[in-house]
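Proteins fold reproducibly. Take a sample protein:
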Amino acid sequence: MSAMVIVKLVLRVVIVIFSLLLTLLILMHKGKGGGLSDMFGGGLTQNAGTSGVAEKNLNRWTVIIAVLWVAVAIGLDLMSRFNLG
């Protein structure tokens, strides 16, 4: 197995992990009300009193993981286009 094949395989695993993590982070966000999040129990989190700092950190992590996901996706695409691995 060449090094590029291993790198490509690792990037595929990383993008799957980032996808699952990004889905979980998005689902953890506080609902803004009136949407699907309230239908599926999002209204219960209003009583939990989530902190503004926690929501800000959740937003920050969501953006970081999303940017990393896009970077890995672009890297995989470039590797496929130029037949690396």
